[in-house]
Design a protein that fits this description.
three-stranded mixed beta sheet, L-arginine/glycine Amidinotransferase, Chain A
Length: 223
C-alpha cells in the first residue's frame, strides 16, 4: 500500500516519523485519523513519543527491525518508556556521540547500514552491533555527509537522492542487498527521507508528492 499524509499541515512527514516493520514512532500531537492511516498502510504498532522533548522522531532516531539508536539527549523517561513498550522486540541503545540527528546520518535495513563520515569511527562498531547488520559502510553520498536524509531503504528496495552517481547506486545495492532508484518527493525535493516513510508492507509520502513521483517510489520500493 502507498498513501499520502501530512503532519500538522506539513508534507515533510519523514521529519516526524520513524518506522520499521513493527513500529512507528510518531509525535503525541498526531491526530487519531493520521494514526489510523499509519497503522493501516504500514501494518505497524503506532507509538506516541517525543525524543529529547521534540517531535522530530524521524530526524533523531535511526534503526531497523533489530535495533533502535537514540541520541545522547534523549530524556530518561522517554528511553524508559520505549524500553518498556518495545524492549522485548528489538534492542534500544543510546549512541553517545556529539551528533544528535541520527536519522539524518545513518540509513539501515536488516542487511546493511550506511553511516555518515561525520560520525566518530569508534561508534561504528556499536552501530553495527545494535542494528545486527553484517555490512556497514562509512561514506558520503554525492559528496554530502547527511546520508540518512538522502535514502529510504527497506528490505525490498530503496529510494535515493537524484544527485548520486551510478557507481554509488551500485555501492548501495551491494551494501543493502536491494535495488535502488533515484527519486524525489513533495514536488521535487531531493532529500527523499524528508517526505517519505516506508517499510516492507507499504509507504506514506508527503501530500505534495506528484503522481509521477509516487509511481517511481512505488516501483523502487517494490510495493
Amino acid at each position: 500500500m502507498i498513501d499520502y499524509l501530512n503532519i500538522h499541515g506539513n508534507p515533510n512527514i519523514g521529519v516526524y516519523i520513524f518506522v520499521n516493520n513493527y513500529i512507528a514512532l510518531v509525535p503525541p500531537t498526531i491526530t487519531p485519523k493520521d494514526k489510523k492511516l499509519i497503522e493501516d498502510v504500514l501494518g505497524v504498532e503506532v507509538i506516541e513519543t517525543k525524543i529529547a522533548d521534540m517531535i522530530i522522531n524521524g530526524v533523531m532516531v535511526a534503526g531497523n527491525d533489530k535495533g533502535l539508536l537514540l541520541p545522547r539527549i534523549v530524556r530518561p523517561d522517554e528511553y524508559d518508556a520505549l524500553k518498556q513498550l518495545i524492549g522485548n522486540k528489538m534492542r534500544i541503545e543510546v549512541l553517545n556521540i556529539r551528533q544528535t540527528a541520527l536519522g539524518n546520518l545513518i540509513a539501515a535495513n536488516n542487511v546493511g547500514a550506511l553511516v555518515s563520515p561525520s560520525i566518530d569511527v569508534a561508534a561504528v562498531k556499536k552501530i553495527q552491533e545494535v542494528l545486527g547488520v553484517d555490512r556497514v559502510l562509512q561514506k558520503p553520498l554525492a559528496n554530502m555527509p547527511t546520508v540518512g536524509s538522502m535514502i529510504v531503504v527497506t528490505n525490498r528496495g530503496g529510494v535515493v537522492h537524484p544527485g548520486v552517481s551510478d557507481e554509488e547506486i551500485k555501492m548501495l545495492t551491494n551494501l543493502f542487498g536491494v535495488g535502488f532508484a533515484t527519486a524525489t518527493v513533495n514536488f521535487g525535493l531531493y532529500f527523499v527521507k524528508a517526505g517519505l516513510v516506508a517499510n516492507d508492507k507499504g509507504a506514506l509520502v508527503g501530500d505534495e508528492t506528484t503522481g509521477p513521483e509516487l509511481m517511481r517510489i512505488q516501483q523502487a520500493l517494490r510495493l
